Amino acid sequence: MVEKFEFDSKLKKNLIIMMVIGVVGLIWAFLAGLHDGHHQSRFWSNILLNVYYFTGIGIFGIFFVSANQLGYSGWITLVKRIYMSLSGFLVVAAVFALIIIGGVWLHYHNLYDHWALPEEMKKLANTKQTFFNPTFWTVRVVLYFVLWVFVGKAVIKAINSKDIADPKVYKRSKLMAALWIVIFAVTESFVSWDLVMSTDPHWYSTLFGWYNFASYGCAAFAMAILLVIFLKSRGHLPQVNENHIHDMGKYMFAWSILWSYMWFDQFMLQWYANLPEDTNYWVKRFDVPLFKFTVALSVAINLGVPLLLFIKRGAKRNLKYAAFIAVVVFLGHYLDFFNQTMFEPNAIAETKECCKKGEGEAECCKKKEAALATGATVFYAENKTEGKTEDKAAVKDEKPATDAAKTETTEPKSAGEAASQSNAEAKETKAEEKAEAKEGGKEEEAEEAPKTRASLGLPELMILTGFLGAFLFMFFREFSKDTTFNENDPYLKESLRHHVEYA
To answer: Taking each helix axis from N to C terminus, what angle separates 276-286 and 242-273, rounded to the nearest 10 degrees?
Structure first.
């Protein structure tokens, strides 16, 4: 029996409540940043994070159906519309993208200040200045959403056609599926550079597009599993059984391993190559305690949970257990995108003076500009360890010549005595540095962890809830437009008889 999902008023009401919670969270984040002189960076970075995350889930859903269409896959027929309807959010995402673009031109936010401001643009390489020209960037981002919304609808219409059994129509659906895969492959990589990697344009990764592709896939499979299980709990999709859930779970598990491989590849290759434009991204973030915590938690969730808890066959065939793992994976990849989008816009530059003893102001400024030009201090204005080393060198140089003479005439000491003397001198030097700092009216900040406005608190959870509500609202709105599956699909019988057996 073919049914049509009814988007009832109770479900709409619950999703609207979720959206209201999200609006409150956005207002909270906005008001919290009114007096920080930082363009409400927490507010804007939360918008970027959620728009980027849920957009990726939407475009990946069409990609997955297109790949199965080209591969003559039959098992997916009963759940095709689940994946295709994930793209319903793209219209909402396009509106938010226009808001972000407007913020760039009007300088309402600092998400892309490292290239949107003329004085910062000059610090980039010539090729990057051309690529991150605000006009060219705007045209690209608008083009992505135009292609996703309009071509995506055309692809869905072709694959879900009621005349799909006609060989000509089926062939056309495969051509449209191939077109979407090409569009997806290009735009998915470019949008990851334009919306996320460009928040820190001095850094780049040749794996970034693939890395985001893997994260999109994990989140999309998790969302699809949760939606199928939810619909079944309300009496819909009776033909979908544990075998279909099993296959969906296998894809989520496989993509989790792919994501782990991409994460390790990106990190390991940049660490091994030890290039400044690569390693600086990690060095400056590992100075932030919150980043060290969230990146470790992200890896533990996105690799450890699927690998340890979802590898067994039975785990993928148990609906409640699969739903639990899907929720964890969904939150884990939200955390992954949190790490990518939140820390650069929310960075707080150090205010400590850069000029050291015996160094002129002009020379100090030259060094600072050179450091900024190399991208070595994009995240924070100062490299603290360098200053500390210079201070110690200055202290040593200022020692009277008489001390050196005394050292030369003193008879050799034992190793233990020499070590004790060295420790005592180090403590004395440190005490002198603290005293000098206090005399200057400033507390020493060299040993403090760098500060950031990035936070993973209640506002973030509220904003995530709001965007999730909007995403689900658009999903159910799209899903309710047609029957839950296409009864004319030539592979429907194969999907109805789908059964996974192991020897």
So the answer is: 110
